[in-house]
Specification:
Length: 134
């Protein structure tokens, strides 16, 4: 059986990474994640991510590059993460989140990330640091 895919976006803007604080379910509330959601039948990962960020944050975005790897979530689900550029709009916590925070690469450890997001966050921060050195 193939696992269902959950996509998340490492949203970059002005050298910072967007973190979203979960408001539900209770066991995840108060912890931080990269925003996203489930891929629906007939959608690519990139299409699902653009849709989810529109629904959750009220922004138009473009999926850029998938980070290497995937991470297990609850049984039957895996997480895949893309870097994302904002096309238009200012992110707002509309669904599933009660706060958003922009983090510089040296600030990413200041929030309590969900465990499954940590490897992707580390890779995203590495990419932001590399881009800042160019």
């Amino acid at each position: 059986m193939n696992a269902s895919v959950v996509v998340a976006g490492a949203v970059f803007d002005q050298g910072r990474l967007l973190a979203a604080r979960r408001s539900a379910p209770p066991e995840l509330a108060g912890r931080w994640e990269l925003p996203g959601g489930k891929v629906e039948p007939g959608e690519s990962g990139e299409q699902a991510l653009v849709r989810e960020l529109r629904e959750e944050l009220g922004v138009e975005s473009r999926a850029l590059e998938r980070l290497p790897g995937e991470w297990p979530l609850k049984p039957g689900y895996v997480l895949q993460v893309w870097t994302v550029a904002l096309v238009s709009g200012e992110p707002r916590a509309l669904q599933d989140h009660d706060a958003l925070r922009w983090l510089a690469p040296d600030e990413v450890d200041e929030v309590d990330w969900l465990d499954q997001d940590r490897p992707a966050v580390a890779e995203a921060a590495h990419r932001l640091r590399a881009a800042a050195r160019r």
